[in-house]
Structure formats: structure tokens, C-alpha cells
Amino acid sequence: GEDVEQSLFLSVREGDSSVINCTYTDSSSTYLYWYKQEPGAGLQLLTYIFSNMDMKQDQRLTVLLNKKDKHLSLRIADTQTGDSAIYFCAESKEDSWGKLQFGAGTQVVVTP
Amino acid sequence: DTEVTQTPKHLVMGMTNKKSLKCEQHMGHRAMYWYKQKAKKPPELMFVYSYEKLSINESVPSRFSPECPNSSLLNLHLHALQPEDSALYLCASSQGEVGNTEAFFGQGTRLTVV
Fold it and tell me: Helix (H, G, I), strand (E, B), or coil: what is residue A81?
């Protein structure tokens, strides 16, 4: 998706924090989402944030939204080997109901 | 229950075959989706059903034919597919609220066309 960009790869040591970044171009985005996909599996919705918020925390996950820079990040605290997966950010817009625009995905590899 | 169930998990079909993919959800969601995902790529939207009516068709070839028999079920009928149609086919559902596509995905059907 050319409207949403992510870095392609992140390596992190077990127990450290991971930060996955995403940038988007359209200021009309209403909701921004983070999905996790393990090998051979479907997408798991991790969390989402409404565009008028700047932070959301859910257990080990913290989402930060910088609307001025159109930058979204997902922080995973105390990263575990089970967190190894591809992480997609996605956006939805009020004028294109039903469509999710996905980024290319960030492959996160957790090493012991 | 936040589960979307897809069957079968794997499917191998010839180019002259007709087959169907099935999807079911019992979350009371009124929007259901078909996505296609190629290896190492993000999902691509194919179809959206809203309140059992087709609302979005992303210019998908007619060899893919969706059907929504009721609010809990979504089918994708396949006919005369090509090898390049081999992919992971994902079903998803959401509440159907304007602007919020908080979609829950199934585990997918891995389709191989030979």
C-alpha cells in the first residue's frame, strides 16, 4: 500500500522493547490499526487507535500517534519469542468505508 | 467469541475445477470481507458485503464469485482459476460502523491452483 509505509525488518533480543514504526500520508484517516500475522496464519487484530487520540496502552502494547508527522508506532514491552511475526499497520478512512489500507508489513525476529 | 472460521484450511484445485471457500462468524457483525494475500505481501481487498449486500468489488475477475447467504455466512465460489490465483484467501468481519473497520480475520484458506 503506497499510502502506508513501514520498515521491513526488525531484530530484537528477548526481554528488550520492540518499536515498530509506520507512516501514513492521508490526514483523513479515522482509525489506525496494528495486526500481527504468524507464519501460515491469519491476521490477529492487536489494537487500534482513533485519530483524535495520541496514545493507547494495552498490557505490553503501547500505540503512539503523532498526527502532525503522520507517524504511528507500536511498542512491545518485554518482547518474547512468541512475538516473532509480521506486523501490519493499517488505516481506514471515513470516505472509503469498509476498506483497510495496509502497510507492507514489518517482520520482527526475536532472538534469545 | 471473536472467531471467524474458514473452511477448508488447504485446497488444491485444477484449472477446470469448481470449488467454494466458506466463512462463518457469530459475532453479530454486519460487514464481511474477502482478502487475497500473496506470500510476503499485505492482504488485498477483493469484496465487501454490508448487511448481506455486495458493497465493494475491487475489480476482481469474474472467475471469483462471492455470495452472502445470511449475515453469518460468506462464500467465495471459484471457477476456471489460473495458477497465479494461488494465494492465502482471508475472510474478515467487522461491526459495520462507518469509518471504523475493526476487522477480525479468519485463519485463511491456502489455495493452490495446478
Answer: helix
